[in-house]
Amino acid sequence: MANSLYPRLFAPLDLGFTSLKNRVLMGSMHTGLEDGNKHDRLAAYFAERARGEVGLIVTGGYAPNRVGGVKPFAGKLSTRSEAKKHQQVTSAVHAENGKIAMQILHAGRYAYHPFAVAPSKIRSPITPFTPRALSTRGVEKQIGDFVRCAQLAREAGYDGIEIMGSEGYFINEFLVKHTNQRTDQWGGDYTQRMRLPVEIVERTREAVGSDFIIIYRLSMIDLIPDGSSWEETVMLAKAIESAGATIINTGIGWHEARVPTIATSVPRGAFAWVTKKMKSEVSIPLVTSNRINLPGTAEEILADGCADMVSMARPLLADPEFVRKAHEGRADEINVCIACNQACLDHTFANKMSSCLVNPRACHETELNYIEAPTKRKFAVVGSGPAGISSALVLAERGHNVDMYEAASQVGGQLNMARMIPGKEEFHEMLDYFRRQIELKGVHVHLDTRVTAEDLTDKGYDEVIIATGVTPRDPNIDGQDHPKVLSYIDVLRDHAPVGKRVAIIGAGGIGFDVAEFLLHDGHSPTMNLDEWLAEWGVVDPAEARGGLARERTQPRPVREITLLQRKAGKHGANLGKTTGWIHRAALKMHQVQMIGDVNYERIGDEGLLISYGEKRENPTWIDVDNVVMCAGQVPLRELQEPLQAAGIKTHLIGGADIASELDAKRAIDQGSRLAAGL
Ligand code: NAP
Ligand code: SF4
């Protein structure tokens, strides 16, 4: 059945020997469930997505051998006994009428262990281990291991495999000169360098037969200096098609690229045009990828002829029912991935199990479930930030009666400030989702209502959840009452006028946000693809190798901003592992001065007086029109004591619990988990 809202997205895709029910490919994503024996959890995780009607699921990467693992003890598939364990996963997906392919990922020089191998002995800029250069026989062995891994995947019941040929991993490393300096038959000119992927696909096809899906993930734009030229990329795609691939998937950028490719600030569908360039060059189905998080965006991309399928990975972590909701015309019920990376990729890089900021159940399907409460009770939730809303929604979903009180005239708490930041527009989606769910789940919301403990005591609540959030910390700086001084709330929420020269006190998440806000004066490059591409120096790969401009046009800063902190280390050290560098790079691009190791001596007509180091040396006035305070926050929890004194059971969550770690990930996780157990 084709859906009238998204006719292209829900058109089946005929692959000859099999057919996919729609055009959604769940892109490969490492979650941590691949490592160790977590097949029961994996089975539950993927079965939920298959039940949600994903057209074709691709697993996280499995190494074809030990040296190809991304880290020590990474999930691999090289033995029959390992294959047997995967059957739990494949049969769970098939039981839900889904299809699943296994990704074969050889990390090459990106491997985070000392046994890494690569075409040449050249260390990557993002790993500490120098790889061993493979001998000619060693290369042959790797190819054999790919083929064997594919055969085992078939034995394990997978419908296909994806050969990971992009993102700068092993196969990709053979393609470009600076990582492949070999002089044997696997190096040399491009036809020699591309032999490895072609041989892998050809020999795999021979081994697995004609009725098995082979997806090849091909780096369509490397985004590294001296990456592949467009001519080379097309040559490779054609050869991969001839070698027997069923589908070509798009890879964007090597991991070492200094261009953001999936973060929130990347415009939606920012790289679909690259896949579109390839459309006329090959005749097998093409998949496009990166920053596609809504069914409407996916449909537009397909309608524009960019690809035959769209790949979404994180959006399906955020909402396993994404596809089904779109199919049933319930797109406004989709829990939208905000591309924050905070609970998925950042966890992977910290060696922690992935989850999802907006959906703490992701990858925890076997342990976190919102089951109907045995006794229905009456709860008050005070505060409607992410912690309060999440707890209210889970309580209501479980059948409890929930009143949510909010002092402001809208729900969302600090999310309402986050959504004002250029590059963080996805927070609008999160708020829309919350509002819709509040409506659907029947949470009784009381806006413009600042409740006191007395208000709550006589209303018959069984328990009260205090999610009242935070208040800005008083930094206690001499002269902080000067009219030049503003708080981040004055700037972001109340839109106070701000001068051209600004000092920001505090370089945490909010200091960075305020800097971004002031730099763009309400304008967001994320909302304009051409501007965004130019800002990051991305060009058509037919114009320059790797799609990187030879020269970058630096934007003219709207304001002179100085971002200050007292500690000596790098600014924004606590920002996300995979996104912190983007925020720092964006501010540097706009010539923001970042100064650390300072003391705030005084604020006066002259501006902000700082000194340096413990000895308070070199006192210097920074001549600014405004000083914006972003010095962190303290919990707001004045309700707790009187409620407890009145004998009412209370729970503290979110910023009201711990302000220093205040972030939406912890708030939503804490709110949801608490409510799941009440
Ligand atoms: P924060 O990250 O804890 O940063 C507070 C800043 O204030 C630090 O730079 C700190 O640096 C400074 N500071 C602390 N005490 C001070 C004092 N007494 N006087 C002057 N400066 C002081 O807090 P935040 O920026 O308010 O952010 C709150 C949380 O929101 C973050 O932890 C983050 O999780 C979340 N958030 C995240 C993002 C994001 O992009 N991921 C964006 C917004 C908010 P020094 O002590 O070195 O001076
Ligand atoms: Fe998307 Fe953030 Fe969830 Fe990752 S953690 S899936 S980026 S919303």
Summarize the structure.
The chain has 678 residues and is α/β, with parallel strands linked by helices. 31% of the residues lie in helices and 17% in strands.
What does this protein structure show overall?
- The protein has 3 domains: 2-349, Aldolase class I (TIM Barrel, Alpha-Beta Barrel); 378-471 and 635-677, NAD(P)-binding Rossmann-like Domain (Rossmann fold, 3-Layer(aba) Sandwich); 479-521 and 558-631, FAD/NAD(P)-binding domain (3-Layer(bba) Sandwich).
- The protein is built from 22 helices and 27 strands.
- The strands form 7 sheets. An 8-stranded parallel beta barrel has the order 3-4-5-8-9-10-11-12, surrounded by 7 helices.
- Helix 3 packs parallel to helix 6 (195-208), helix 6 (195-208) runs parallel beside helix 7 and helix 13 packs parallel to helix 15 (427-441).
- The longest helix is centred in the N-terminal third of the chain and has 20 residues, at 136-155.
- It is globular, with a radius of gyration of 26 Å.
- The model has no long low-confidence stretch (mean pLDDT 96).
- Bound molecules: NADP nicotinamide-adenine-dinucleotide phosphate and iron/sulfur cluster (SF4).
- NADP nicotinamide-adenine-dinucleotide phosphate is lined by residues 473, 475, 505-511, 513, 565-567, 574-576, 630-633, 660, 662-663.
